[in-house]
Amino acid sequence: MSTQHINLPPVHSGKVRDIFDAGEGRLLMIASDRISAFDVVMDEPVPEKGRMLTAMSAYWFETLADVLPSHLISTDVADFPPEAQTNGVAGRTMLCHRAEMLPIECIVRGYLSGSAWKEYKSQGTMHGQALPAGLRESDKLPEPVFTPSTKAESGHDENISYDQAVELVGSDLAEQARDASLELYQRAAEAAAEKGIIIADTKFEMGLVDGTLVVADEVLTPDSSRFWPVDGWAPGATPPSYDKQPVRDYLSTLDWDKQYPPPPLPDEVVTASAARYVSAYEIITGRDFADWPG
Fold first, then answer.
1. Which of 111, 110, 70, 114 lies closest to 94, judged by CA?
2. What confidence tens digit (pLDDT) does each residue in 259-280 have?
3. In whole angstroms, what is the distance from residue 203 CA to residue 225 CA?
4. 1 pLDDT exceeds 60?
C-alpha cells in the first residue's frame, strides 16, 4: 500500500515498516508488503505480508500480556487519528505508545541454527560461551539462551555478550530484558509446539514507556523468528521454515552479489512465500486469516 495519503509527520521508514507521529506520545506503525533478503529489499511485494505480520504480532501481544506489557494501543482504524483513517491501513497498522527503545536486540535461541551454528561449527561457542561438544545443526539446546546483539542502522547486527549488554543498558534493565525474553520465548514455544510448530529462535525489541519495560515493534512473527514444522525437523540439517525461505532459496541459485539492485522474483516464488506466512498465522493462532481486517 502507499502511505502518501497519511497526513502525519513521518518518523522512520524501514525495510518493512513505515512509522508516523500520531501525537500525544503515540506512533502509527504500518507494515508494508515489502520483503527483504540478505539485507536487500526486493522489488516485488509479497501480497498481504504486512497484514499477516500485524495480525500475528497482535495475537502474541495479547496472549503474552501477563509476561510483559506491549506498546500496542489498538489495531482498530476507528482509534487512529483522522489523518490516518484512509484506505489500505486496516489490518496492517498498529497505534502504539512511543517507547524509549533499548539499543539492543533481545534474541533467544532454543535451537542451534543460523549465525549461532556457524560460530559453534568454527569455535565450539555461541556468542562466545562454550557449548557441549558434538552438537549438530538444528539441535535443540540444553536450555534456551539469551543472546543479545546490537542494532545496526544498516548492514548486519553484531552479536554481543550479556556483559556488553549490561554496559549498554545497565544491569537492572539488562536483567529485566533477559528474564522477560526467556519467559516470552518459553511460553510461546510451548504454545506453538502444541500446534506442530517449533520456534527455533526469535528476536524481541524492547523499550520503556513511562519507565515500564514493554515489548515493541513486532513479536514472534516469521520475520523475527525461525518457525519450523515439528514433522520436518531433524538434527543435522536445516528444516523448512514458515517464512521467506522460498525467496532466499531462489536467490541462492543465482549469480547475484547480494547487493542492490535485487534480481526480479518469479511469481511462483512470491506466491510460495505468501502462502507460508499465512499458514504460520493460521496454524499458531487457530484463526482464519480471512477474518482479519483489511
1. 70
2. 999 999 999 999 999 999 999 9
3. 6
4. no
How would you label 7-41 residue by residue, b for 16+ Cβ within 10 Å and e otherwise?
Answer: ebeeeeeeebbbbbbbeeebbbbbbbbbbebeebb
CA distance linking residue 236 with residue 230, whole number of Å? 15
Q: Which residues contact 249 (CB under 8 A, 6 or more apart)?
A: none
CA distance 59 to 232: 25
Percent over 70 (pLDDT), the chain: 97
Please list the residues that pair with 23 across neighbouring strands: 26
The residue behind cell 541462492 is 252
The grid cell for 221 is 512473527
Please give the grid coordinates belonging to residue 204. 524481541
| Whole-structure pTM value | 0.94
Whether residue 133 contacts residue 177, with contact meaning beta carbons closer than 8 Å, is answered with no
Q: How far apart are CA 205 and CA 188, in angstroms?
A: 16
The tens digit of pLDDT for each residue in 58-95 reads 999 999 999 999 999 999 999 999 999 999 999 999 99
The pLDDT value given to residue 128: 86
The pLDDT score that the predictor gives to residue 156 is: 67
Q: Which residues contact 21 (CB under 8 A, 6 or more apart)?
A: 8, 9, 10, 11, 27, 28
